[in-house]
Amino acid sequence: MSFENYQAFLKMNIPKAIEFKDDKLIILNQTKLPLTEEYIITDNFERIALAIERLEVRGAPAIGIAAAYGLALSIKNIKNNIEQIFINAYNRLSSTRPTAVNLFYGLNEIKKIYDNHKNDSDIYHRLVERAVQIHKDDIKMCNAIAENGLKIFKKKSRVLTHCNAGALATGGNGTAVNVIRLAYENNLVEFVHVDETRPLLQGSRLTAWELKKMGIPFSINTDASAAVLMKEHKVDLVIVGADRIAVNGDVANKIGTYNLAVLCRYHNIPFYVAAPSSTIDKNCFNGSEIKIEMRDKKELIYFNNYQITSEEFEVFSPAFDVTPNELISGIITEKTLHLPPFDFSNV
């Protein structure tokens, strides 16, 4: 897809998850969607760190972009102790979401520029320039992922997706949802089943909202309903995003993804992952090395600030799970459709 097509995509009234304007980061607060469109406008790295932790901005690529801008902004208008402030900002931002590898990609790219140009008078603008380029690169990668994703469709299909891997999760127009969008425009998608994605409902709140904006037919289902949909032959393929991909093709994604992959294997349904190459962690050989973030127990005990069970109860609430490579039919990146056996050591 060309940049002009991307501009046309924006005219569908899907607000951008992140925008950098007038030396401030504008973040669409995704915890308020779909009922309220509220924006966070800040040039404070601590506020950006909180936005990442609170899932006000979420999705691996979007997290990486936000972190890159946050680190660049940390030295805006700073005259003294620049290095210490930069290091503090790097450490603070890197502690926000440990599973999403794009976070560390964005931070480390900014750090490279800082280390090489720390004594330059225009160091702040150099950092911002790199953050902007990371953002632009993600837009291009989203477009290429969608094009490569067309290869997975053999017929007009009913697709199931989990969590949100659309424009709200990236700097561009999405990964898995963008594949669905382009396939729909090419008459290759008939219908989309959207897992609600417990406990924070990114599917029913965010993916459903995006699909409605794009005019793609869909319905929301509980995560536990996916098996029934497959049993009743209502799903032709599953496509999801990723927060980290190991060298061997093991994939960390939103909790519930592994369930789907197991169900797909049993029902003989293809299971695909769509993500930019920046999601591949070259230092992680397999999924056992991926650190899984644990969420606050209140996310299960409360729903929309309403208590639904006792705070005395123990809670198990990982944000992600890891899907073994042998359950994955293909991984779509901006470079190609990768088929098993996977080896991302040279990608």
* Mean pLDDT score: 95
What is the H/E string?
Answer: HEEEHHHHHEHEHEHEEEHEHEEEEE
Overall shape: it is globular
Q: Could you give a short account of the major beta sheet?
A: 7 strands, mixed
Q: Using the CA coordinates, give the radius of gyration.
A: 20 Å
Distance between the termini: 22 Å
Number of strands: 15
| Number of helical segments with 4 or more residues | 11
Low-confidence stretches: none
Describe this entry's structure for a reader:
The protein is α/β, with parallel strands linked by helices and 347 residues long. It has eleven helices and 15 strands. The protein has helices at residues 3-10, 45-53, 60-73, 82-94, 101-117, 123-149, 176-185, 202-214, 226-231, 257-267, 298-301, and strands at residues 18-21, 24-28, 39-42, 157-161, 189-195, 218-221, 237-240, 244-245, 251-254, 271-274, 302-303, 306-307, 320-323, 330-332, 337-338. The strands form four sheets. It has a seven-stranded mixed β-sheet with strand order 6-5-4-7-10-14-15. The chain has a three-stranded antiparallel β-sheet with strand order 1-2-3, covered by helices on one side.
SSE arrangement:
Elements lengths: L2 H8 L7 E4 L2 E5 L10 E4 L2 H9 L6 H14 L8 H13 L6 H17 L5 H27 L7 E5 L14 H10 L3 E7 L6 H13 L3 E4 L4 H6 L5 E4 L3 E2 L5 E4 L2 H11 L3 E4 L23 H4 E2 L2 E2 L12 E4 L6 E3 L4 E2 L9
Parallel strand pairs: 4-5, 4-7, 5-6, 7-10, 10-14
Antiparallel strand pairs: 1-2, 2-3, 8-9, 9-13, 11-12, 14-15
Helix pairs in contact: 2-3, 3-4, 3-5, 3-6, 5-6, 6-7
